[in-house]
Amino acid sequence: MTVTQFNELALSEELHRAIADMGFETPSPIQAQAIPFLLEGNDIIGQAQTGTGKTAAFGIPTVEKINASERKTQALILCPTRELALQVSQEIKKIAKYKSKLFAAAIYGGESITRQIKDLQRGVQIVIGTPGRVIDHITRGTLNLDHIQTIILDEADEMLNMGFKEDIEKILKQLPEERQTILFSATMPQPIMEIAKKHQKSPKIVKMAKTELTSQLIEQRHFSVKSHLKNELLTRLMDFYEWQSMLIFCNTKQKTAEIAEFLIQKGYAAEALHGDLAQNQRNIVMSKFRHGQVQILVATDVAARGIDVENVEAVINYDIPLDPEYYVHRIGRTGRAGRTGVSFTFISGKESFKLRDIEHYTKAPIPAGNIPSSRSILAKRKSQLEAKIEATLLEAQSEDFVFSPQLEAVTEILAALTEKGFDNQAIAQAVLHLHAGTSLQLDKRDIDFADDFRKNRRSEDTGRGRNDRYGSRPEGRSERGSSYGDRNTSRGSSRTTTRTTNNLRGDMARLFINVGKQDKVSKGDILGAIAGETGIKGREIGSIDVFDSYSFVEVPKAESEKIVRLMNKAKIKGNKVNLELAK
Predict the structure, then answer these.
(1) 247: alpha, beta or left, given left = phi > 0 and alpha = psi -120 to 50?
(2) Which residue from 541, 552, 542 is spatially nearest to 480, judged by alpha carbons?
(3) Which ranges of 270-373 does DSSP label H, i.e. alpha helix?
(4) Looking at the DSSP assignment, which residues form a beta bridge with residue 513?
């Protein structure tokens, strides 16, 4: 039996209200197949990946069958990661919103076990946890499994990949014989089938068809690019599309940190999410991402398990996934809740065969994408600025428009400049120059990256990529020989650096700052302080070099005096700073 509407399901009024509040109108394919079986008490094997609605598929019937008057644990949900356990817990609580006596708790490593013990002692009917922490509570006697009626293994394949097979077996052996066993997995390798055969009774099979593995709402493209051009391609795409919320996937923890640092230096609000972060750090990063304080999340596949943010506009596969199944998991983070999304995959060297494997697995072509040229990006910026100015002019012409004190000051400035003999066109040009800064300029180099990209030409200009726009050095080069040996030494005008101002673009200036690594100052700290204190846009700031006791930063020359004046009254990481023009 499958259903086409939630009102066809024999659910309590409380659940129907909660489902309506969550914005569900019609069941997803996996929900339509699984929920009726689960309500009847069947064991099931469900093959589904992130983004298909599988949490609600097992969560709705689980909540419906709980006896809320009994403060005993009746359902246990095992998840591979802390993020997924927390995400599932939040979803269960939404489903149980109107079940006033029903309580759920998430238990996982990296967080205070004392708080979790208190939650369990108060009595919770549904426990969501990672295998290791669940066993810890069982051993301590703080989690009693005697009354378990439902056990759910969510993303079972990932739990096996992470080495939890023995833990899962140990937990399953301690459960009551009479129970419902639910297994959800993106793939069905042999170890999964062995668990099903050993611990399930005549399970029903619910499976997503391969044609449903990727959403039609997601635009998928690939870009064949040499490794040293990936950063240039990434920022070029971001400048053109201007996504407000995006995920970048890398295959290693080190690469996530490198890409996040690169983006922060370029003025983007980015954070890395990987397995080395402590749980409280991961929680902070995810909270910032959900609330829009972080625009870009750079993550590994395992760390991203459980990420469920509805407004992700784009997924960038900086590294092509190691397995076609991971590709489906990755792109499932966008194109949700009826919204459209994009998924761009970077292909380097001989990775084209991996792309063919993905296309074969998803049964969907991934065509080549077009690289936005610097001229097209510039045209877009001009158009946007023109639209903003036009909207302001039209607003000022309306009958009910009231001049604000700010606009009255603008009028006074305009009148004063007119009296001095400047015409309106010259004034407008000067204002636009100050307002737009370098954002309306083409790159200094003559070679268009899009053309060079297609030719796969390697040159110094190409290696510099977008950094050349800011006068920064090619990636991988280091700066040596600075004469700023000690920040406490005399700082006269005779100071020089290996890179002099002759190496800068004509519209940029290089500033010396008397703080560095020993002050626990990073490039992101410097960029954030300057942008926050002066109002300069982060992407207008050029190269930042941090040494042990001092740093250098490149800024728009027209704003350099203002930056020095304002920053010399500020602090960076609690350190009073002194900025000077490097000569």
Answers:
(1) beta
(2) 552
(3) 279-290, 324-331, 352-362
(4) 551, 579
Query: The tokens of 327 are what?
Result: 């590709």
pTM of the predicted structure, to 2 decimals: 0.50
Which residue(s) pair with 510 in the sheet? Answer: 554
DSSP state of 538: G
Dist. CA 495–CA 484, nearest whole Å: 7
Strand, helix or coil for residue 424: helix
187 class by beta-carbon count within 10 Å (0-12 exposed, 13-18 middle, 19+ buried): middle
Per-residue pLDDT of the chain (583 residues; tens, 9 = 90+): 566 788 888 899 999 999 988 877 778 888 888 999 999 999 999 887 666 778 999 999 999 999 999 999 999 999 988 888 988 999 999 999 999 899 999 999 878 889 899 999 999 999 999 999 999 999 999 999 999 999 999 988 888 877 888 999 999 999 999 999 999 987 777 888 889 999 999 999 988 654 455 567 889 999 998 888 899 899 889 888 889 899 999 988 889 999 999 999 888 889 998 877 777 787 788 888 888 888 999 998 877 765 667 788 999 999 998 878 788 888 888 877 667 889 999 998 888 888 988 888 888 889 998 887 777 777 777 777 777 777 777 776 776 766 666 666 777 888 888 888 888 888 777 777 776 655 555 544 334 555 555 554 333 333 333 333 333 333 333 333 333 333 333 333 333 333 444 456 677 888 989 888 888 888 878 887 887 778 777 777 888 888 888 888 888 888 888 899 888 888 888 888 888 887 5
Q: Which amino acid is at 533?
A: E
Is the Cβ–Cβ distance between 249 and 316 less than 8 Å?
yes
The bridge status of strand 508-513 relative to strand 551-556 is antiparallel
Q: What tokens appear for 218 in the block?
A: 């997601």
- Give the bridge partners for 579, in sequence order: 513
Which domains occur in the chain, in start order? 6-208 (3.40.50.300), 218-362 (3.40.50.300), 374-436 (no CATH), 478-581 (3.30.70.330)
Structural element, H or E, at residue 96: none
Q: What is the DSSP letter of 126?
A: E
Give start and end residues of each alpha helix (H) in 123-252.
131-140, 156-161, 165-173, 190-199, 230-241
